[in-house]
Specification:
By secondary structure, this protein is of the alpha/beta class. About 40% of the residues lie in helices and about 25% in strands. The structure holds 3-isopropylmalic acid and manganese (II) ion. 3-isopropylmalic acid (IPM) binds next to helix 4.
Length: about 350
């Protein structure tokens, strides 16, 4: 039987609860589709750091390369220095495994969930490609004369030709495969940050090789406006790391909230990492109230990456049915449904949906 090896890092707060539900659904799908998910659960996160002083051991990077995919819950704990564990675990995995694509679908599954007036599910259906290994996240810089009136804080944003190129190429490739407008929008801020001209030029150069795909350009500020005013204008959009981080939270709200937004940190052909976009929500930890749908959808993305398109479609269809039928009044901790019950609901629904791949 086909077996996929998964490394699970539940992480902090609600992370372990939502990944458990994600795996519950994945196991149900595996049974139906005839594959196996072999797993190793890792303890990394803030709790582990507080107990042992260990963030990510040096040996882990080689070890992770032995898996087909990584399934991550969430990282973040107010008891630990801001960003320390997030940078070690989330950014660590992205950088050390060179997961240069952060793929963030923004898709509305039920009109009830959209905060925008008069927008339909057809209007909100886009893919944001966030460059995932460069820009402000390279953490080049630092703080000098800290705590004095002369304090200086520096953070360089770095973009390489190859880094822009590979993200942009990926965007054109997915636009070609998608059944929408055959369009890629570049989002940058080259009017104010002139170094970002590397994005603008590279986009045109790469775009020349895809004559069948339309090209559009938007500055990040305008893109935020269009995302709310005319989300239907977006098909595939590609952007730098920090902008992609910000605009996908905006996008998550347009598709119904952080309770449904999922992402894939991808290096095609190599071990890649899948996670919900939401954080660890420490106040809901262990209460069995967090919505696991985003983690479940991250699981669907993971299956697609693993070549299990049928299984992935089953999950997406099951979630769509549940949402369209109004079985989940909201996608947050106030839905009135337990985390584990939502997991059960989806695990049951995947057995019932028709699978149109
Ligand atoms: C995300 C998160 C991370 C990011 C944080 C936790 C470092 O916000 O995945 O979007 O900024 O990339
Ligand atoms: Mn973010």
């Amino acid at each position: 039987m086909k077996t996929h090896k998964i490394a699970i890092i539940g992480g902090d707060g609600i992370g372990p609860e939502v990944t458990t539900e994600g795996m519950k659904v994945l196991d149900a799908v595996a049974q139906l589709e005839g594959f196996k998910l072999e797993r190793v659960v890792y303890p990394f996160g803030s709790e582990h750091y507080l107990k042992t002083g260990e963030l990510m051991p040096d040996s882990i990077w080689e070890e992770l390369k032995g898996f087909d995919a990584i399934f991550l819950g969430a990282i973040g704990d107010p008891r630990v220095e801001v960003g320390l564990v997030e940078r070690a675990v989330i950014a660590g995995i992205r950088f050390k495994l060179d997961l240069y694509i952060n793929l963030r679908p923004i898709k509305l599954y039920s009109e009830e969930l959209c905060p925008l007036k008069n927008k339909t599910c057809e209007d909100v259906d886009m893919l944001i490609i966030r460059e995932n290994t460069e820009g402000a996240y390279m953490a080049l810089g630092g703080i000098m004369k800290k705590g004095t009136p002369d304090e200086i804080a520096i953070c360089d944003m770095v973009w390489t030709k190859r880094g822009c190129e590979r993200a942009i190429e990926y965007a054109f490739e997915v636009a070609r495969k998608r059944d929408k407008d055959k369009k890629v929008t570049l989002i940058d801020k080259a009017n104010a940050i002139r170094a970002m001209d590397i994005w603008t030029r590279t986009f045109e150069e790469v775009g020349e090789r895809y004559p069948d795909i339309k090209r559009e350009h938007a500055y990040i500020d305008a893109a935020c406006m269009w995302m709310i005013k005319n989300p239907e204008w977006f098909d595939v959009a590609v952007t730098a790391n920090l902008f992609g981080d910000i605009i996908t939270d905006l996008g998550a709200m347009v598709q119904g909230g952080m309770g449904i937004a999922a992402s894939g940190n991808i290096h095609p052909g190599k071990v890649s990492m899948f996670e919900p976009i939401h954080g660890s929500a420490p106040k809901y930890k262990g209460k069995n109230v967090a919505c696991p749908i985003a983690a479940i959808m991250a699981g669907a993305m993971m299956l697609d990456f693993l070549g299990e398109a049928g299984g992935s479609a089953r999950i997406e269809n099951a979630v769509t049915t549940i949402l369209k039928e109004g079985k989940l009044p909201s996608l947050d901790a106030r839905s009135g449904h337990k985390t584990s019950d939502v997991g059960d609901m989806v695990a049951k629904a995947v057995t019932e949906v028709s699978v149109g791949v």
